[in-house]
Write a structure and sequence with these properties.
8-stranded mixed barrel; about 1000 residues; alpha/beta; about 25% strand; 38 strands; about 40% helix; disordered N terminus; Beta-Lactamase; GGDEF domain-containing protein; phosphoprotein; disordered C terminus; GAF; EAL_dom; PAC; Rossmann fold
């Protein structure tokens, strides 16, 4: 026991005396207190059971027990052996004998003293020695327990051997794995392996040895033999699974090395940020990404991701990795040099024999070419749809820039449109450096083509690409310093030339951080895209020309009938909603004696006169007024006003001023006059066609009266021929005065009949055959077109059904007017005609004009219902309406018919009309619509339509409208007639203005 220091008071000594002699107990107390600096506390128990009871009740055990060997109820050895006191014990006896001492020490006593030779010093030393020994024994036992717990918790087998290789210690894992037992020989297989030799070497040298060994079952162990006091310690670790895993990875690596796809092996954890660490990549990975094994191993595969990698795809991958599921995704990665690549990513988890996932194996296949091909086709379709839908040219060029960006991902494209002697920026890439993009959009939005130098001017002037392989070596690029400052090294300028090569429509520029010229494959891609762009821009120009021809008069540049009616309907709607005195004047103006000018001076002079009249009228009217040319020498006016009296006075004065001065035509002055008829809305009506008819009547009143201006008088029209014709029209249907004529539609190329268009004719009992141009508008304005149209449907379907017996598959085409679409029973009329005739619905084609789509709010819904009956739908007079192209891709149409107004100049094949017809056919076929061209009167026109792959032909060159029997004999029963015999036109000319009139 360590003596206390000067500043440390000695601790109390607590002693339990178990002795049946009070005298002896008193003696022990005196001896302990004699010369002892500590306070000695004594408790005396005469019996062994008393001592045990006191120990059980005591809050803390004493420091030492002085235990008499002979007690009345038990011996001291029994006290120790059976109850194991929790403190130091000194056994006291009056009898001598070594056996008693041995028994006491084995039973747990720390010391043994003879009562006959006790002294204070001897007793004090015995107690101190016993207390210290008990403390050391207790600490040693705790250390042993801790060591046993540690060794038992190891997954490794631990054994201790003495110098004779006898087992002195084994942990639980050694017992479980090896069957080893303490004081038993080593298992036989251990003695027969290299372990035995390693033990002998360690015993001889004292140095550590490592050894690999396996048992009879194929288990592999990693063994380590350490020198220890009295022998050696052996640690065996089962590495069977690890060896098998290494073998699997070795086999996998042998496969991956020769694989053409990139292979990446990464640790299984962590799946979240920063991601698993790469442990292996094959050579294909380096070729695909540019990263060497040294640069990627230890990193996360996320190093391959970039700014445009789809976050949604990455989220799906992370989710599947968290759930240990296979991954199969296409993702955008980036090479080491920043080049984007698309890869098909297949990731699978690899488990060990216990089912624990240890690694991810990823196979990455480069699918950049496939993805870009798909994206290119999608972008190409998008550009076609933008063009077909009539979207702004900037949208179309932006789509073309996307095509270039997909084909050349390292280059940033811009698109410029040519207008006269200027290029205007129409689209630019978002990947251009901000400074460059700001410069070309804000500073140089236009390029002056009259300047003699410049790479863009050269490309436009020559029609050939200009390739600047290295801007640093060129003096032609004016913004070269700016480009180099933004790390742009090369520039390709590519002109977009028209199909005939006569004009440059625009320019593409491609900037790149790389130097060099296009390769052979890149040149082919550029050529294809430039051809595609030229086709679209040509088509766009033709579409704009078509739009202008559809809405404006080609001679005067004024709005035509279709656009005028659009303005009139809009104005009527606004006037109806407006409060107050707002009114509209609808005017019809006709030149007096215009036919005389044509007959005497020629049509060229007449055309010049009409142009000058249009210019003067436009100058005389207000900006809010609408002036249009209806045809011939007729002009229509739309004039808003609030005070009628002031308006009538003012308009007469302005018209008189227009015709006060002579017109200079063919070098000579011409004094002309006009007749203007006016009607007023909403006073006289709110129907556009009715108002025009009223203005027409007022104009004829002005002519008859010799006045410049006349207003519509509803009372003055009673008894006129128009009223008489209207009255007769009401009885024509019941009087069976209508009949159908049929004009054939012929297959282009073969020129055999495939359909017959039903055309309505009125054979008046006294007036004879009345022109459809005279009675169809009247039937539409009165609403009689609805029952007449129902009769036409039934009669045409009946005739087509009868023809099926001799000409199966022959279709019949029937025109529908806008007024029929207003009627709620149109669908029923078509159904009744099909049921009554039992005609296959697919053999009935209903032709509609664009006025139907403009005038009838629910026309699209009605067309869908008709389409549901199985009949075919075709757009008639295509190109004469408003925004016609926008209908093609959203209505259930099967075909369209190009209006006869485009056919006249088709013979040359190079004029504007030819380009428009070619563009319409190309566009229709792209939308899977067949195309009929009507009004064909010459062989050269037919040949042109066949050359541009039109589908069906119609016109007097092939067949004129004929009654049913004559159609059967001349068209169906005999070969096509000699074209020379078809030059004579019938007495009743066909009109393209309304259905049933051809």
């Amino acid at each position: 026991m360590t003596p206390p220091t000067d500043t440390e008071a000695p601790a109390d000594l607590s002693v339990l005396i178990v002795d049946d002699s009070p005298e002896d107990a008193e003696l022990y107390l005196r001896l302990l207190r004699r010369g002892n600096p500590r306070t000695v506390r004594i408790h005396h128990c005469p019996l062994g059971e008393d001592g045990l009871a006191w120990l059980r009740a005591a809050a803390t055990p004493p420091d030492c027990i002085l235990l008499d060997y002979n007690l009345p109820d038990m011996t001291g050895v029994e006290f120790l052996r059976d109850h194991h006191p929790p403190c130091a014990v000194v056994l006291l006896t009056g009898a001598a004998g070594e056996q008693i001492a041995v028994d006491a020490l084995q039973a747990g006593a720390q010391d043994y003293l003879n009562k006959g030779s006790l002294s204070a010093e001897l007793l004090q030393r015995g107690v101190d020695r016993a207390v210290e020994k008990f403390r050391l024994q207790r600490e040693l036992q705790a250390s042993r327990e801790r060591m046993a717990a540690v060794l038992s918790s190891l997954d490794d087998a631990v054994m201790a051997l003495d110098h004779d290789c006898e087992l002195m210690y084994v942990n639980e894992e050694a017992e479980r794995q090896l069957g080893a037992r303490v004081y038993h020989p080593l298992p036989g297989w251990l003695c027969r392996t290299s372990l035995h030799l390693a033990v002998e070497e360690v015993l001889a040298s004292g140095e550590r040895r490592s050894v690999d060994l396996s048992d009879e079952t194929g288990r592999w162990f990693d063994g380590r033999v350490h020198h220890s006091p009295g022998g050696v310690t052996i640690v065996l670790r089962d590495v069977t699974r690890a060896r098998h895993e290494r073998e699997r990875l070795r086999l996998l690596e042998s496969v991956a090395v020769s694989a053409q796809d990139a292979v990446v092996i990464a640790e299984a954890n962590p799946s979240l940020y920063p991601g698993p660490r790469v442990v292996y990549v094959n050579a294909a990975f380096t070729r695909a990404t540019g990263y060497t094994p040294d640069e990627i191993i230890g990193q996360t595969p996320r190093i391959l991701q970039g700014p445009d990698t789809d976050r949604a795809v990455l989220a799906r991958i992370s989710d599947r990795l968290r759930r240990w599921r296979k991954v199969n995704e296409t993702v955008l990665n980036y090479r080491k040099d920043g080049t984007p690549i698309w890869v098909n990513l297949s990731i699978v988890p690899v488990a060990d024999e216990r089912g624990w996932y240890t690694h991810w194996v990823s196979v990455q296949r480069d699918v950049t070419a496939d993805v870009r091909r798909t994206q290119f086709e999608e972008a190409r379709r998008n550009v076609l749809e933008l063009t077909s839908a009539g979207r702004p040219i900037e949208d179309v060029l932006d789509g073309l820039c996307q095509l270039l960006a997909l084909s050349f991902p390292t280059r940033a494209p811009t698109a410029w449109l040519k207008h006269d002697q200027q290029l205007t920026l129409a689209a630019s890439s978002a990947v251009l450096p901000a400074e460059v993009r700001e410069y070309i959009t804000a500073q140089r939005r236009t390029i002056d083509l009259t300047e003699p130098v410049g790479v863009t001017q050269t490309a436009v002037r020559t029609g050939q690409p200009v390739i600047i392989e290295n801007i640093a070596d060129s003096t032609e690029v004016r913004m070269g310093d700016l480009l180099l400052r933004n790390d742009l090294r090369s520039l390709w300028v590519l002109p977009i030339c028209s199909a005939d090569g006569q004009d440059t429509l625009g320019v593409f520029t491609l900037f790149s951080v790389h130097t060099g010229a296009p390769t052979a494959s890149e040149q082919r891609s550029l050529h294809d895209i430039l051809e595609f762009a030229a086709t679209l821009l040509d088509r766009r120009a033709a579409q704009q020309q078509l739009q202008r021809m559809a809405l404006f008069d080609g001679l005067t540049g004024l709005p035509n009938r279709a656009l005028y009616l659009e303005h009139l309907r809009r104005a009527l709607s606004e006037t109806h909603r407006a409060a107050g005195s707002a009114q509209l004047a609808v005017g019809m103006l006709d030149l007096n004696r215009f036919k005389h000018v044509n007959d005497t001076l020629g049509h060229t002079a007449g055309d010049e006169l009409l142009r000058q009249v249009g210019v003067r009228l436009r100058r005389a009217l207000r900006p809010s007024d609408v002036l249009a040319r209806m045809g011939g020498d007729e002009f229509t006016l739309l004039l808003p006003f609030t005070n009628r009296e002031r308006f009538e006075t003012g308009i007469k004065r302005r018209i008189d001023d227009v015709f006060h001065e002579p017109f200079m035509v063919s070098g000579q002055p011409l004094f002309m006059s006009c007749s203007l008829g006016l009607t007023f809305a909403p006073v006289q009506g709110q129907e556009a066609e009715v108002l025009l008819s009223q203005a027409d009547m007022a104009m004829y009143d002005a002519k008859r009266a010799g006045r410049t201006v006349a207003t519509f008088d509803p009372h003055a029209t009673k008894g006129t021929p128009v009223i008489s014709l209207e009255s007769d029209l009401h009885t024509a249907l019941t009087g069976q005065e209508f009949e159908l004529h049929y004009q054939g539609l012929f297959q282009a190329g073969a020129r055999h009949p495939v359909a017959a268009e039903a055309l309505l004719r009125w054979r008046h009992p006294t007036r004879g055959l009345i022109s459809p141009a005279d009675f169809i508008p009247l039937a539409e304005s009165t609403g009689l077109i609805v029952p007449i149209g129902a009769w036409v449907l039934c009669e045409a379907a009946r005739q087509a059904a009868r023809w099926q017996a001799t000409h199966p598959g022959l279709r019949v085409n029937v025109n529908l007017s806008a007024r029929q679409f207003w009627a709620p029973d149109l669908l029923q009329h078509v159904t009744d005609a099909l049921n009554a005739s039992r005609l296959n619905p697919a053999l009935l084609t209903l032709e509609i004009t664009e006025s139907v789509l403009l005038d009838v709010p629910n026309a699209a819904e009605t067309l869908e219902q008709l389409h549901g009956l199985g009949v075919h739908l075709s757009l008639d007079d295509f190109g004469t309406g408003y925004s016609s192209l926008s209908y093609l891709h959203r209505l259930p149409l099967h075909g369209l018919k190009i209006d006869r107004s485009f056919v006249h100049d088709l013979g040359e094949g190079t004029g504007a009309a030819a380009k428009i017809v070619r563009a319409i056919i190309l566009m229709a076929h792209a939308l899977k619509l067949h195309v009929t061209v009507e009004g064909l009167e010459r062989e050269v026109q037919v040949a042109f339509v066949e050359a541009v792959e039109g589908d069906y032909l119609q016109g007097y060159f092939l067949a004129r409208p004929l009654p049913g029997p004559a159609f059967e004999q001349q068209v169906l029963g005999w070969p096509a007639p000699d074209p020379a015999q078809l030059t004579h036109r019938p007495d009743v000319p066909a009109s393209s203005g309304s259905p049933h009139t051809h």
